[in-house]
């Protein structure tokens, strides 16, 4: 007999006891960034094939996380069975369906009416888990703030808010929120992620590295996509200038493989590029392995501007000017304005850099400085564009301009790597 049950935030689930329990386990796995979410959601529709939210959630994971799911079939099933559910569930299904078609307005409207719909709030905000539905951080911040009164001191929302606070430069608040959240749920992946960013952005590299190394083998060991947390640890090591540690981290935790999909492109690819730019770097592994581990359709037609950024960086790392030309031409014809207005000129600038035209490349990257944030991701990830610009300036003998950028980075936070980079520019500038 079909009954109305409740999800972890109190919203009705029109399904059986067993299906509701499996769905709730899957939702909590997602909110923790824990492995097993898709398995539990699949279990929910095995218990009740008419459970619309189970089908819709799987479609969302297939679309956003490249989980091997027939997205169209799951979405069709969700739409077919939604009529028998509550108004909130029908709105939820409609919001996911529209989002998958490229229209996120129903999802934002849904959250205004149902702020405790944690799955859709998580998908609306660009984080480690989802790409989000906004292009500039302020829009995502506004969505989170509107939902904030409904959550109180909830551990998951505190982690989401912590990530937002560090984006706003409110690092003490971010740290307090993430620590409080982890005290309630030590495996809270969003909170751990926010804490990782707070350590990095404040230049607290030694403490951040020590904490991350403990968490990934302890409370966070069951976290999905642990490679991203390994990337955070490697970024601390890179900032400290400990290139031997970066090599060990890469070889043991960040080697690309087919199972990691886009994570290899985003984490390993960007790390290899930034590592190769670092003063004293030798024997950096070939980024061709990253490209080989990435689906060809992602390389040819990256589904988001954020992935397009990382495709371009990986192609620059291997010096593939043909691929960069192809990416620039494809993005220039794209319906999405960010692909046209940011990705296309970015790919062109990196193509110039790959071709040795460093002064022109630096000028192109400088023109994009204010628009890079439209690509999505975090400040720590988008920094790869700034680092490419610094490298181009140095290679073009534009020492003073490079020094201005490096001084500004060191004003933001301490970094022995940037200090070493600045030292290489200073003698040349004085000549």
CATH topology of the domain at 3-126: Serine Threonine Protein Phosphatase 5, Tetratricopeptide repeat
- Structural class of the helices, strands and pairings? mainly alpha
Order of helices and strands: EEHHHHHHHHHHHHHHHHHHHHHHHH
The quaternary state of the protein chains shown equals: single chain
Distance between the termini: 83 Å
Major beta sheet, strand line-up: 1-2
β-strand amount: under 5%
Chain-averaged pLDDT: 93
Largest sheet, described in full? 2 strands, antiparallel
How would you characterize this protein structure?
The chain is mainly alpha-helical. The protein has a domain at 3-126: Serine Threonine Protein Phosphatase 5, Tetratricopeptide repeat (Alpha Horseshoe). Helices cover 70% and strands 2% of the residues. The protein contains 24 helices and two strands. The protein has helices at 17-32, 37-47, 52-65, 71-81, 87-100, 105-113, 118-124, 137-151, 155-167, 171-184, 189-201, 205-217, 226-239, 243-254, 262-277, 288-292, 296-300, 305-318, 321-332, 337-354, 358-367, 379-395, 399-412, 416-430, and strands at residues 3-6, 12-15. The protein has a two-stranded antiparallel sheet with strand order 1-2. A hairpin with a 5-residue loop joins strand 1 and strand 2. The longest helix is centred in the C-terminal third of the chain and has 18 residues, at 337-354. The mean pLDDT is 93.
Defining key terms:
single chain; mainly alpha; Serine Threonine Protein Phosphatase 5, Tetratricopeptide repeat; two-stranded antiparallel ribbon; 2 strands; 70% helix; globular
């Amino acid at each position: 007999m079909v009954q109305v049950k409740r999800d972890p935030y109190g919203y009705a689930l029109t399904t059986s006891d067993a299906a509701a329990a499996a769905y709730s386990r899957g939702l909590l796995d997602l909110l923790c960034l824990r492995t097993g979410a898709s398995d539990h959601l699949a279990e929910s529709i095995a218990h009740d094939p008419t459970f619309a939210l189970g089908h819709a959630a799987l479609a969302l994971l297939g679309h956003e996380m490249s989980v091997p799911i027939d997205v169209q079939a799951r979405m069709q099933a969700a739409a077919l069975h939604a009529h028998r559910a509550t108004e909130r569930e029908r709105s939820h299904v409609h919001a996911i369906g529209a989002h998958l078609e490229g229209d996120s307005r129903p999802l934002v409207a849904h959250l205004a009416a149902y702020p405790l719909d944690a799955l859709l709030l998580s998908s609306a905000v660009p984080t480690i888990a989802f790409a989000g539905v906004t292009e500039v951080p302020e829009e995502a911040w506004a969505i989170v703030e509107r939902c904030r009164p409904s959550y109180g001191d909830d551990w998951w929302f505190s982690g989401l808010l912590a990530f937002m606070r560090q984006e706003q430069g409110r690092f003490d608040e971010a740290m307090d929120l993430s620590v409080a959240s982890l005290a309630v749920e030590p495996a809270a992946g969003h909170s751990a992620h926010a804490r990782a960013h707070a350590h990095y952005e404040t230049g607290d590299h030694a403490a951040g590295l020590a904490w991350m190394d403990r968490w990934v083998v302890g409370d966070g060991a069951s976290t999905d996509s642990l490679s991203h947390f390994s990337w955070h640890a490697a970024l601390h090591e890179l900032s400290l200038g400990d290139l031997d540690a970066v090599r060990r981290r890469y070889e043991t935790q960040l080697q690309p493989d087919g199972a990691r999909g886009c994570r290899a492109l985003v984490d390993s690819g960007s790390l290899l590029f930034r590592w190769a730019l670092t003063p004293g770097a030798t024997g950096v592994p070939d980024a061709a392995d990253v490209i080989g581990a990435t689906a060809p359709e992602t390389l040819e037609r990256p589904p988001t501007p954020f992935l397009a950024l990382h495709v371009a960086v990986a192609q620059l790392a291997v010096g593939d000017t043909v691929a960069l030309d192809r990416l620039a031409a494809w993005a220039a014809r794209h319906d999405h304005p960010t692909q046209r207005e940011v990705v296309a000129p970015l790919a062109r600038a990196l193509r110039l850099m790959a071709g040795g035209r460093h002064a022109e490349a630096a000028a192109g990257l400088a023109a994009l400085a204010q628009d890079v944030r439209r690509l999505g991701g975090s400040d720590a990830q988008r920094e790869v564009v700034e680092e490419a610009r610094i490298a181009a300036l140095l290679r073009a003998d534009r020492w003073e301009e490079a020094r201005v950028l490096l001084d500004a980075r060191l004003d933001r936070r301490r970094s022995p790597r940037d200090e070493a980079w600045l030292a290489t520019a200073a003698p040349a500038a004085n000549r």
